[in-house]
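Below is how a single chain appears once it has passed through the pipeline. First comes the sequence as given, then the structure the pipeline wrote out for it. We keep one example in the README because the format questions we get most often are answered faster by looking than by reading.
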Amino acid sequence: MTATDSRRDRGAAHAERLAAVSGPRLRLRSMPFVAQTGLRVTPGSAAARRAGGTLGAPLPEAGAVTAAGERRVLWLGPDEWLVLGPPDSEAATLEALAGAVGDEGAAVDLTSNRVALEIAGTDARDVLATCCHLDLHPRAFGPGRCAGTLLGTAQVVVEQTTGEPAFVLLVRPSFLAYVVDWLVAGARSVEAAPTA
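Resulting structure:
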């Protein structure tokens, strides 16, 4: 394992705690080595269209995610997107996007900026509801949706990836232990809740 790999796999330190509350109805795990590239560009501009062409899908609109091969593009703000990709793809994505937008935008490697966690299974929505204020009802937030929100008091990006449901949480490394604490507590409270 290289120094770069250990720097990016910060979630591994919490693997046992996440596994301890996982089971048939809930899976919590860290997702090491998710490549992350930030993109800032004026929406609807020629540079935005070139960036979408480079990625193989148009840049998504507010609250949406587009899939582009092995990459997913998340809308983060009016002129901001986050490209998630497979391990070690950040350099190629950065180079391609920087070439596409030139001086009309900016692309930056953010792989070390956030740690990715996955929460999936039939209890995933209920566990997230214990610690985040998003309306997670399937009619309001389903696959292909993303939002920035607070989990406890930590800023996170939440993306629903499948209807199982499965969610990816992107959290700053300095808040990772705090977010894991909230998720573990939420999983225990959902598990302990009486069933109808």
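The domain at 35-109 is CATH 3.30.70.1520 (Alpha-Beta Plaits).

See the next section for the split statistics.
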